[in-house]
Design a protein that fits this description.
Layout (H helix, E strand, L loop, with lengths): L2 H26 L3 H31 L1
Helix pairs in contact: 1-2
Length: 63
Amino acid sequence: MTFSNQARIVELHKQAAHAHMTAAASHDKSDHLTAHELSQKAHELSMEALRLAKEQAKQARES
């Protein structure tokens, strides 16, 4: 796994964590629509990070 790919995966995880925290804050303020949208974005970022990590693991096994 190259450093740049690892860095991208880490960045996606950080962005997802930030979106989750922001969603929680929005939910606490009774802004449920924004909270839902942010939770959805966090999920999408997490899934992209997972996809990239799996792709990198597969490439590492094949090389």
